[in-house]
Design brief:
With 206 residues, the protein is mainly alpha-helical. It has helices at 5-30, 33-56, 58-65, 67-93, 98-129, 139-147, 152-165, 171-205. The protein has eight helices and no strands. The longest helix is centred in the C-terminal third of the chain and has 35 residues, at 171-205.
Length: 206
């Protein structure tokens, strides 16, 4: 006996709504990425300026902090700066911005809706003529065209990622969310090492 159409309709509606809500939550999370990036930039500039001040006044400051204290403070600033650069790389190399992700999704849906309407007309025309409708667009053809200008390593990465996540309906958000997690974690560590520098400077100065 076939499944009750009402139950199947309800299941599909619940599934679609669940994924739509999850996508909206992902967009909300990613909308914080520009603020994290701005804070990283501000902290990176402050760290660089502080390190420059230490180096420019190495004689006076090393006397006040001791050589060991000066080396520790400079090392903490260097680590904080390095973490800031890694944070900027996460924002630069991966599509983290939530507004852009939402805009891209809306644009893609609009294109697919237009294609669906045109495709329906093609199939109706083929039916009237008594012939089989021409083949529809294939996702692999779209991917191959998209990857045509990419370097080999990027093509390999895209294909590996799609092959691994091809059945996941949130595939468009998984990589940005993971990059956003890296961004926030690295930003937190960047700030932590800068605070460690402040504490170390106070301890050695005292």
């Amino acid at each position: 006996m076939s499944e009750d159409p009402l139950k199947e309709w309800s299941r599909l509606e619940n599934e679609n709504t669940t994924h739509a809500l999850v996508s909206a939550a992902y967009v909300g999370m990613l909308s914080r990425a520009p603020q994290v990036d701005a804070f990283t930039t501000w902290l990176l500039a402050g760290t660089g300026a502080t390190a420059g001040l230490l180096v420019a006044n190495v004689g006076t400051i090393s006397g006040a902090l001791s050589v060991a204290g000066f080396q520790l403070c400079l090392s903490l600033l260097a680590i904080s700066s390095l973490l800031g650069l890694f944070t900027k790389c996460a924002a630069a190399f991966f599509p983290i911005d939530g507004e852009r992700q939402a805009a891209l999704q809306a644009q893609s849906l609009k294109i697919l809706e237009t294609h669906g309407e045109t495709r329906k007309q093609i199939e109706e025309s083929a039916k009237k003529r008594g012939v089989e409708a021409p083949p529809d667009i294939e996702i692999m053809a779209v991917l191959n065209e998209f990857m045509r200008p990419l370097p080999l390593w990027a093509k390999w990465f895209v294909m590996l990622y799609i092959k691994k996540k091809q059945h996941d309906r949130q595939i468009g958000y998984l990589l940005p969310i993971r990059a956003f997690m890296w961004q926030t974690n690295l930003c937190f560590l960047q700030a932590l090492f800068f605070l460690a520098f402040v504490v170390a400077a106070m301890c050695y100065a005292g």
